[in-house]
Amino acid sequence: MSMFRKTGIFFFLLVWPALLVFVAHPILFGNPVDWYSQHVVIGKTLRDTMIASHSLAPDFVPQLFGGTNFYALSYYGALRPDIVFSSLFAQIDFVSILSTYAVFLMGLGSISAYVFLKQNRFSGPVCLVLSLMLPCSTIFFQSHRQIMFVSYIPFLFGMLTGIDHMIEKKKCTLFILCGTFVVLHSFYFAPASFLACILYFTYKKGWKTHWKPFLFGFAFIIAITAMLWLPTGLYLLENNRPSAPVDLFSLFRPDRKLTGLLYGRYGCGQPLLAWISLVFSLFLKKTRKLAMILLVLFLFPVCWYVLSGFLYARTKALLPMLPLVVLLEASTLKNLKKDAALFLVPVALLWPLLAIRNSIVWWDAGICLLVMLIGTDQRKTIPLLLVPALMIWHAQNPSDSYLDSLPETGEMTDWTSDHPGTTLALMDQNDLVNETFGLQAYRASGYSSIYPARYNTYIFDMLKNNIPINNRTAILDSLNPFYLWTRSIDTVRSEKVPYGYKKESGTLSHNGSVLPRFWVTYDWMSEKEMDSLSFPDSLQAVVETPSVSGAERSASPFTSRWRKENLPSLDQAVTKRKKVSYDDLHLDPERIYVLEMDIENTTPDQPVVIDVCGMRNKLSSASSVYYNHNTHFTYFLSGEMTSVPLTADFRSGSYVVKNTVWHSIDARLFEQRLRHIQPVTVRETSSRWTIEASLEKDGILCTPFAMQNGFSIEVDGRKVPVERINQTFAGCALSKGNHTIEIRFEAPGKKAGIILSVSGLAGCVLWIRRKRK
Q1: d(Cα 147, Cα 154) in Å, to the nearest integer?
Q2: How far apart, in whole angstroms, are the C-alpha atoms of residue 248 and residue 251?
Q3: Which among 396, 330, 316, 401 has a CA at the least distance from the CA of 132?
Q4: Is-contact 412 426, C-beta < 8 A?
C-alpha cells in the first residue's frame, strides 16, 4: 500500500467519529448526567488543584467532601493527557478540551484497530469496515457519558499490536508505552485489559512459550504507573466500599440476551456479526480456545463480577474484550466461505432472534445472511455490515442523550468571586455536586466512585441526611440545618430559606453565624458516651459536646433538649400515589422539627419515594447495583418550611409506612453554641495549614477534614497525636495558652509511587537500549 493511500485511510478513520458527531448534531458532545457532573466538573477541579499546588501530583483537595485525598478523585483521570494538558493551558475551557479529546480518541481507536488488523494480515476491506464499525458501538455513547469506560481502547489495541512487535521483532517499546497509557486513562479497566493481552499472547504463542519479555513488559508498565495506582490503591484499601447485594444463583445463570456483547450501551454494543463470529470460531482450531474463553466471559455474570472487583456484576467490565471480539470478527469474515461450518450462520442466529426484543436484530440478521451466505466479492458486500452498526449507533444515541446546554452558574460564579472562601450548598445540584467554581468555594458535598467511608457514615448515619437517589455514595447537599451548621455552610442556593439564613439575591441565602471551618471547643465527651446516645440526642451532642477519641468528658453531664411532638402520623399502607396536605398545622419557626418513619417495602424490586415539604427520601429497589439500604426515612423542617402547609407526597408502589415519630428542638442552640467556641486564625495552602490559637483553658482543635491516613499535626514544633472528633474529623488536644499548629497532609503512597515510577521509567529505558544493542 502506498504511503499516500495509507495516509488517506488514516485521515478518514480519524475524522470518521467527527462526521458522526456532525450528523448527530448534538449541541454539546456530552451527556446531561455523568459527563458534566463528574467528568467535566471533577476534571476542572483536578486541573485547578494541579495549578494551585504547582504539581501534577497534589496531595489534597480541600474544596470537596469538606477536604479529601486528591486520589479519591483519580478514577476520573487524574493523570489523563487531556487533564494534564488543560493544567498547562488553563485559559481554554475544559468542556472544549474534554469533548475534542473524546472525539480524537475515537478516531485514534479506529486507526489503532486498523493497524492491529493489518498486522494480523487481514484484507483491506475487512480492516477498513471493522475499524469504521468501532466508533458506532458503545464507544460513541460512552465517549460523551462515562469517558473512562472507553478512553483506553485505542491504547489497548496498541498493546495488542505491541505484542505482535514483541513476538516478531523482539521489541517491547510499543507494548510498554500503550500499556502505560491504558492505566493512566482508566486504571479501573486495566486488570481486564491486561487479561485481554494475556489471552491474545496465548492465542499467538500458546501457553507453553517464552513469557519473559511479556512479563518484563507488564512489570515496567506497573512500575511506571505506580505514581497513580499506588496512592489510589491505598486510598481504596482505607475506604472499603460496600458491594451491591448479589444473588449467587444469578451469577452462574447464562445471560441469554447477550447484553455484554450485542446492542447495549454498557456492553460492547456489537451487531450480530460478533455473536456469529464467537460461535463460528469454535470450529476453527486456531481460534477455538479464545472463542471458548470469550463465550464464558460474555455468558456468565460471575465473570463480570470478578472483573468489576467484586463490587457488582455489570457488563461494562467486558469492554476490554472488544479488541478480541473484533479480531474474531475479522477471522470469521476471512474464513467463513472456506469452511464446512457454513451452516452455523443461520443456526447461530436463532438464539439472539428468539431472546432479544429489538427491532434492529431482524435487519441485522438479514444483512449478515446476505453478506455471508450470498455475497462473494468482499469489496461490494462487506461494507453492508456498516448498516447494522450505524443502526445501533443511531439507536444508542438519541437526541436526549446529549446535553442541551451547560448548567447556569452565573449567579454562583459572581457570588464566589465576591466572597472567596465561602462554603456553598446547592439544593438543585445534580449537575453541580462537585463544582468548586475555580476552587473559590468549599463544598461539603461531593460524588466520587471511590468511596469516602468515614465521611459518608457521618453524613448519613450521624447527621441523618435524607437520601434522595438510588445510592448513598453521592453526598448531596441537604436542608438539614444540622448539616448546614456543622459543615460550616454559609451560603445556600434553594427556593426555601433555611433557619438562620437571609435571602441575598435570587435563590441565594446567607448565614454569617455557622460553625467556623477550624475552631476550638472546651466542651466534649468520650466516644463511648456518644455511642450510648440514641438519635436525635446524638445529633444534639454533635453540636454541643462533640466526642473526642482518647479523651474523657470535660463538660457537664448531657441533658437532652428534644421534645416529642404530637403531630400527625403518616403511618399507612401505600399502593398508588397519594398526596396529603395539613393546612391547619402550625409549627414554631424558632424550632427544628425532625420526622422519622420506618419503611417496609412489600415489593423489593420497586423503589419507595416519599417527599415531605419538598425534601425527598428514596429506598432503591433491591436489584439496584447501588442499593442504598434506606429503610428509615428522616426529614428536617425548619425556617420557611415551618410557615407553609405540611405536605407529603407518597409515590406509587407497594409499601408500608410505620412508626412515625416527631421531635423538635430549639433552633437557637446553634447561636448559643457559637458563644462557647474559640476562634482561631488560619493560613491555608492546598495541603498545609498553619493555625494560631489562644486558649483560655485546655481544649480541642477541630478541623473540617474527615480522618484519613496521611494527616500529621505539630503543636509548637512538636508532633502530637491526631484525635478523632465526632468519630469522623481530624483534630488535636491543646493546652491553655498560645499555640502555633501545623497540619500537613501527605497522600499515602505518593512519594513511594513517584520513586517507583521514576525507577521503572529509567529501568525501562536501559532495558530497551540493552535489547537493541
Answers
A1: 13
A2: 5
A3: 330
A4: yes
**DSSP category for residue 517:** S
Contacts of 230 by beta carbon, 8 Å cutoff, 6+ apart: 749, 750, 752, 753, 756
Q: Which residue has the cell 467490565?
A: 317
Residues 81-109 as b or e (16 or more Cβ within 10 Å = b): ebbbebbeeeeeebbebbbebbbbbbbbb
How far apart (Å, rounded) are the C-alpha atoms in residues 499 and 479? 9
- Each residue's pLDDT tens digit, 545-556: 999 998 887 778
Determine which of 10-19, 378-387, 423-432 has the lowest per-residue pLDDT on average. 378-387
Q: Which amino acid is at 609?
A: V
Kindly report the backbone phi and psi dihedral angles of residue 351, in degrees, each rounded to the nearest multiple of 5, phi listed first: -60, -60
For residue 504, the surrounding DSSP H or E stretch is strand 502-505
- Is 663:606 a contact under the CB 8 Å cutoff? no
The residue among 766, 756, 707 whose CA lies nearest residue 226 is 756
31 — phi, psi (to 5°)? -110, 145
Distance CA 111, CA 612 (A): 54
Distance (Å, whole) CA 335 – CA 283? 11
- C-alpha 286/C-alpha 32 separation (Å) is 45
CB distance 293 to 343 below 8 Å: no
Q: How far apart are CA 424 and CA 444, in angstroms?
A: 8
Distances (CA, A) of 105 to 19, 108, 156: 14, 5, 12
Q: What is the 3-state secondary structure (H, E, C) of 47-103?
A: HHHHHHHCCCCCCEECCCCCCEEHHHCHHHCCCCHHHHHHHHCCCCCHHHHHHHHHH
Strand-strand pairing, 591-601 and 718-720: unpaired
Please give the C-alpha separations between residue 221 and each of 166, 231, 506, 771, in angstroms, as whole numbers: 15, 16, 52, 17
HSE-CB of 358 using CA atoms within 13 angstroms: 23
Nearest-10 crossing angle of helices 190-205, 153-169: 30
Residue showing cell 456530552: 30
In whole angstroms, give the CA distance from residue 439 to residue 449: 21
Q: Which residues pair with 691 in a beta bridge?
A: 682, 741
CA-wise closest residue to 447 among 75, 13, 47, 142: 75
Residues 6 or more apart whose CB falls under 8 angstroms from that of 130 comprise 113, 117, 326, 329, 330
pTM, to two decimals: 0.90
The interaxial angle of helices 272-281 and 360-369, nearest 10 deg, is 50
Q: Find out whether 251 and 314 touch, Cβ atoms under 8 Å.
A: no
CA distance 364 to 369: 9
**Phi, psi (rounded to 5 degrees) for 52:** -65, -35
Alpha-carbon distance of 42 to 44, in angstroms, equals: 5
**How far is it, in rounded angstroms, from Cα 670 to Cα 499?**
10
Neighbours of 626 (CB within 10 A): 15
At 349, the pLDDT band (50, 70, 90 cuts) reads confident
Burial of 694 (0-12, 13-18, 19+ CB in 10 A): middle
Note the pLDDT tens digit of each residue in 686-724: 789 999 999 989 999 999 999 999 999 999 999 999 999
Burial of 360 (0-12, 13-18, 19+ CB in 10 A): middle
Residue 364 has pLDDT above 90, yes or no: no
Q: Where are the alpha helices (DSSP H) in 170-287?
A: 173-185, 190-205, 212-224, 226-238, 248-251, 272-281
**What separation, in Å, do the N-terminal and C-terminal C-alpha atoms of the chain show?**
31
C-alpha grid cell, residue 23: 450528523
Q: What count of Cα atoms within 13 Å lies in the side-chain half-sphere of residue 12?
A: 11
User: CB neighbours of 466 closer than 8 A, spacing ≥ 6?
Assistant: 478, 480, 615, 616, 617, 633, 634, 635, 636
Task: Name 725's bridge partners.
Answer: 548, 729
